[in-house]
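Bug report (template v2)

What were you trying to do?
Predict the complex of my protein with zinc ion.

What happened?
Run completed; filing so the output is reviewed.

Input:
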Amino acid sequence: MPFIFAELGGLPCYRSPLLAAFPEVLHGFFTRRGGVSPEPFHSLNLSFTVGDQGPLVVHNRDLVQQALGLNGLVSATQVHGCRAFLVTAGNPASPAEIPDSDILLTQQRGLGLLIKQADCQAVMLYDPGRRVAANVHCGWRGQVANILREAVTRLQERFGCRPQDLVAALGPSLGPCCAEFRNYREEFPPELWPYQVRPTYFDLWALSRDQLQAAGLKSQQIDIAGICTRCRDEEFFSFRRDRITGRQGAVIALRLEK
Ligand SMILES: [Zn+2]
């Protein structure tokens, strides 16, 4: 389904129609717009490790937290690995970061799971029955390691989730128009080569969709934005396009009970 463009607390963002159907869930795939960082991080950069000024990143994160009405944001130093971290009330929230994790899971209300990215995918997962949310930093290395299957397995083991109950939303990220891998024979195993849509270009959105389905999700419960970050200079940071640049944020949370 096409994602919905919205403004939350003055911040432009994209929302998944599938996730938006659950009133107990808050989420947004934010753009680069609406923040306070100067070039080349203009303006809503949420990463402390790209060369931007720390206090500005803190301010930008506060804007995101306020836009969603959350008590805090939790993020990790993302390392293109497959390690999962279970977020509970006792975790230090932003600006502290959980070490070396690319999967965040929680049942804690009011805490946003923040994934930072500039071309990589953020993939949100939600189990409406068990009220568990996850957010996954899924780059091509994560796809090679099948991090999405790992995330689904963690949800099954830790919370008893059934894959067929899960809803997934894959946000703006590198599209088949721009996902060139000249060394794909070294970088991708042969079973991923069919995702080549023309010489050296790959459809990483289709790959994630198929990996989610192989993990047991229903096709109609997978939402894909279909928006390429590299193509949209005004809206998104893109590492491929700019190299020295910021990171936009994708946040999912369970709403605080009123
Ligand atoms: Zn593109």
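What did the reviewer find?
Residues 4-254 form a domain with the CNF1/YfiH-like putative cysteine hydrolases fold (CATH 3.60.140.10). Residues 109 and 254 are 5 Å apart (CA to CA).
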